[in-house]
Amino acid sequence: MSDRDGRTAQRGRSAPRHWPRADEHVAILDGAQTSLLTITVPPSKRKDRPALIAYALEARLAREVDQEHVTIVADTAASAGANPDARQLAVLVAGTARLRQVCAQFDTLQRPLHRAVSIFECLAASPECWQLASGDGRSAALRTGTGSAIAFDLPQRNDGGDTGGHGQADDDGRVEAIAAMLDFALRDAGSPPQRIELAFTPALPAECCDTLAHRTGVALQPLGFDAVWARSAQAHTLLHGGFAPKVGVGASLWTTLRWPALAAGTALALAGIAMAAGVLADRGEAARLA
């Protein structure tokens, strides 16, 4: 549970029926559910831009462009090229069907979404400091100093069984997956950062961070996941066009009856959907709502 400036007011985990009331509900979609891409389009009238964006994205996407929902998050002059008036766009792409499903699940809970954002925009990266985050330990998102946004899966963790907890093999598998992706990103970047900040829920054990630092040659620094939630307050919402939240008397009444705070949720691909206030729904309830 956060205030409107992204400061955490309270936190917890429970089934959806136990979530606290809030003014607004926000879903953070993980990197497996969104892509952050940079494209260049020629100058055009506003009405022609969607077609030009779709054309530029065709070769970059696995699905047909008409199955994707596109959000422009940056619009700048393109680098020197054949057309000096061309524009360089940073766009977030999310599957239309998946975004519709996320919205429908929150509606089923009678907690309609006010905003949905990508975890990529919740990570701050610079040439000196990269950020790597995972909200559920099943997938991770990396932002580098060059602006690259990379998503990758993490090995499934043992649920502990009769022994309880997670074993060394689980941690070793996660370290290998993270190290492989960081090695790839560091080679591609050319110049390594001074440090990489890790925002993981649950947090990576200290020995895992030490191993990663030794493997990559870059200092690793733990970062509370609250920092990710805080940046969600400034991220572009994906809920526009046909996904724009309903506004009216009913919506206003809903707002006035809720505690003035922002419930931050994480919708994570391999976990199904993880909801508001950093509260992850148990598998049984998530399966029932899917």
UniProtKB/TrEMBL annotation:
Identification of the protein by name: General secretion pathway protein L
Keyword Membrane set for record: yes
Residue intervals passing through the bilayer: 259-281
UniProt KW keywords: Membrane, Transmembrane, Transmembrane helix
InterPro entries for this protein: ATPase_NBD (IPR043129)
Gene3D superfamilies membership: 3.30.420.380
Keyword rRNA-binding: no
Annotated stretches, region: Disordered: 1-22
